[in-house]
Amino acid sequence: MPPLPRLTAAQYRDGILGRDRAVLARALTLVESELAADEPLAREVLAAVLPHTGRSLRLGITGVPGAGKSTLIEALGGEIGRPLAVLSVDPSSPATGGSILGDKTRMERLGRSPDAFIRPSPARGHLGGVARRTRESILLCEAAGFEVIFVETVGVGQSETAVRQMTDCFLLLLLPGAGDEVQGMKRGILELTDVVAVNKADGENAARARQTQRAYAAALHLFAAAAPPVLSCSARTGEGVAALWQVVRAQADPGRRPGQVMAWFDELLRERLWQRFHAEGEVAARRVELEAALREGRMTAPEAVARLLG
Amino acid sequence: MPPLPRLTAAQYRDGILGRDRAVLARALTLVESELAADEPLAREVLAAVLPHTGRSLRLGITGVPGAGKSTLIEALGGEIGRPLAVLSVDPSSPATGGSILGDKTRMERLGRSPDAFIRPSPARGHLGGVARRTRESILLCEAAGFEVIFVETVGVGQSETAVRQMTDCFLLLLLPGAGDEVQGMKRGILELTDVVAVNKADGENAARARQTQRAYAAALHLFAAAAPPVLSCSARTGEGVAALWQVVRAQADPGRRPGQVMAWFDELLRERLWQRFHAEGEVAARRVELEAALREGRMTAPEAVARLLG
User: Fold this and answer.
1) Which of A35, B144, B182, B251 has the smallest count of CB within 10 Å of its CB?
2) Where in chain B are the domains?
3) pLDDT-based confidence at A191, cuts 50/70/90?
4) CB of B292 within 8 Å of any CB in chain A?
5) B123 has a pLDDT exceeding 60
6) A188 and B187 in contact by Cβ < 8 A?
7) Regarding the domain delimited by A55-254, which CATH topology (the fold level of the hierarchy) does it fall under?
8) Is ipTM beyond 0.90?
């Protein structure tokens, strides 16, 4: 197959604004690219679509594999009734790639809908990069007219803080059976959470799901003045899904976006200053020496920093 | 009163190693100083005592004013039976200065003991500075032979993460009455906690304290595979204090120190790179423009960073 002809920034922009799915997919690949040669065009495309962004509801969703995130997104799709996009954050890996891909292929109904766009995880890339690209992917999807954007993560790594920092509402999906599932996630996940939902509250699990819901509601009340609401639902039967959607909408706060953008700017700037400094000639070698001195307790950290900079 | 004669680094070192309390107090003031002129001597003193540091148990303790931190430290003093020092982290302020000072004067027994050293909060200074100085104050106290060092904070600000990062064990002290007290603290405090104790479990509060203990134990179990132990005690009557001390000792992990030192080094280096960059001629002015563009959605953060650096 011959390579596709290169598109100009204007062609990307027109394709995205016209919701041409092939062009959108190519734009996402461009933004995800780690090739330095792709960066100028990626920046041009983003600048071109930027005036058409910002008008979606941005939702983070996390939960261990098997919690039912994809099934819930499908079920919510019916409630939402507006074009929606699903982006996955976690880089594929032998450990999680299978189940994420499995989830994706399970979103059959949404996958066939012209009003939905599903983007699997980038195949590789370190986390910081993935998080950066996901912010930009949100902008591309917004320009393409998707009004609700889900950003999905499996909640075991460092990506949750980043996702919380790019969404209006962060939903934690649990399974019935108090505790077992959060134990697989990182400590502190609840600090990031705006809404908690216990899924699979159906059949013989229904009672256990309500019990889990009550346990988490009581526990969260101990930890925060504004404890996140805790619901239960069944993505499979649809029970509680409409109520969950109302709560998610009510909790969503686009007012945190300006702060998010400034925090993102500061974080990127810090990262670039760090990289630039470490690219200087002797820094790496001197750092190795200083780290040894720190490790062996021969020097304090302020002393080491003063020497590295001085 | 004429100013005290200046001490040399060697005099500081000898005084500290001989546990001369007046010299130790002056060394702490030197390390706390924000005068650039004091910095070289402070660094020299730290370098001189550094070989004599690292042999204490470093304990963080947090809880709202009134939780009984000072009374508990006094009660623990009897269990510990070794020289101990108490350092406060939170900068004094009209809002908290009074109660912290109040706590201090309440540590009457320890205050009179030759085996204890109590250092109130630095009178001023931004948090980052206070945290930096507290790490260095720990080193000075260790060199002076204090074998247990408490670092105390009121748990309402950003200092808890810093304290967790400089101690072997971080203790959260609660009051009976589920939830009310943690609600005054920052969300996420439990993520930092190694041991939780419900204080004032005496008299008519005893039953309520045990109830609070059970509620937190159950709640924490939902949030972490290795949930911190939850105890109750009465610092006033001494009940449960010996057991608490055993648990704190068991949970204390000096093995996290090398990681803490490296994290401190990285954090300081990032901070200095940031300061150095912003001291460059046009950066501040250009930053104002770029921030306006970000706020108004006219630019993405990566674009703004590229322009600021390029």
Assistant:
1) A35
2) 55-254, 262-309
3) confident
4) no
5) no
6) no
7) Rossmann fold (3.40.50)
8) no
